[in-house]
Design goal:
The protein has 306 residues and is mainly alpha-helical. Among the domains are: 30 residues, no CATH class; 109 residues, Orthogonal Bundle (Cytochrome Bc1 Complex, Chain D, domain 2), CATH 1.10.760; 72 residues, Cytochrome c-like domain (Cytochrome Bc1 Complex, Chain D, domain 2, Orthogonal Bundle), CATH 1.10.760. The chain contains twelve helices and four strands. A hairpin with a 2-residue loop joins strand 1 and strand 2. The N and C termini lie far apart (86 Å).
Length: 306
């Protein structure tokens, strides 16, 4: 019998000083701790050396970073480190570099020669990426991210326009706005026809509602009322295109809806949509860039692009 307390006096083998016995895992050869987790034995394995090296390297890096880089706050200031780096200054410098590069190519859009700009593919391809961001930030909330319009806001991705869809006209609309406070704003208002008799409004509602399908009765009271009260703005056939903000009534590009309830509300209460003038927020170059982007939305929609 041995006096070594690490040996089990009954079996003469080295024992675990914590458990008083030795049990070796037959697969790994490691001792077990004696813990049993629903049939799973816990091994008494050594601490991984790779973890020790990772801890040592992390500590060494933290000491080096502490010495070289900004590290400790000192009230309203902080230690600069031996390298004297300032991330705030670095961010400003990078922003200024990006702005200078952007302003360099954006300056070319100060011109109103849209045909020349559109013909320059090397300029337009990267510029349209910036134009998309400009559109999403300023226009998408009302007109949809793809120009598909929204409730009470016109579609920009089709070929139906209130004042024209060429870049020059779009740029002017962006500059002055619609029904805004400026003297140069485009003006468009659908007056309320609540002065008509109820029966007359019903007849006119039925006529306008049937116009997109081409089934409107051209001999009834609705046709007469339309000719007397609506054709001056919407054209005799309801096709719009008068460059006065009056939409077409014979296609699917309807801003406020052309079901009976919507048309009835329009006749009774009128409509007056507002688009702000962007000349106070965007530069002339940004407006021209945005006009080119919007003018291209119908083509993008036809090609199935997003």
């Amino acid at each position: 019998m041995t006096d070594d307390p690490r040996l089990n006096p009954q079996i003469g083998e080295e024992i675990d000083p914590h458990t008083g016995h030795r049990e070796v895992d037959p697969v790994t050869g490691y001792d077990t701790t004696g813990h049993d987790w629903n049939g799973i034995r816990e091994l008494n394995t050594p601490f991984p050396k790779i973890a020790l090296w990772a801890l040592a390297l992390s500590f060494a890096y933290s000491v080096v970073a502490w010495v070289l880089l900004p590290a400790w706050p000192l009230g309203q200031d902080y230690t600069r480190g031996l390298l004297g780096l300032d991330q705030g200054e670095m961010a400003v410098e990078r922003y200024q570099a990006i702005s200078a590069d952007r302003n360099e190519w954006l300056a070319r859009f100060e011109t109103d020669d849209f045909a020349t700009l559109q013909a320059d593919d090397t300029l337009m391809l990267p510029a349209m990426v910036a134009a998309d961001r400009l559109y999403q930030d300023n226009c998408a909330a009302c007109h949809g991210s793809d120009g598909g319009g929204g409730p009470n806001f016109p579609v920009l991705s089709d070929d139906y326009w209130l004042w024209g869809g060429d870049p020059e006209t779009i740029a002017e609309t962006l500059h002055v706005g619609i029904n805004g406070p400026g003297d140069d704003a485009r003006y468009a208002q659908m007056p309320a026809f609540d002065w008509l008799e109820r029966g007359e409004r019903i007849a006119l509602t039925d006529y306008v509602t049937a116009m997109p399908q081409g089934t409107a009765d051209q001999t009834g009271a609705g046709a007469t009322l339309f000719a007397e009260n609506c054709s001056a703005c919407h054209a005799e056939n309801g096709g719009g295109g008068m460059m006065n903000g009056a939409p077409s009534l014979i296609d699917e590009a309807v801003i406020y809806g052309q079901d009976r309830a919507s048309v009835s509300d329009t006749l009774r209460y009128g409509r007056q949509g507002v688009m702000p003038a962007w000349s106070g927020r965007l530069s002339n170059a940004e407006i021209n860039l945005l006009a080119l982007y919007v003018a291209n939305l119908p083509q993008r929609a036809a090609e199935g692009q997003k």
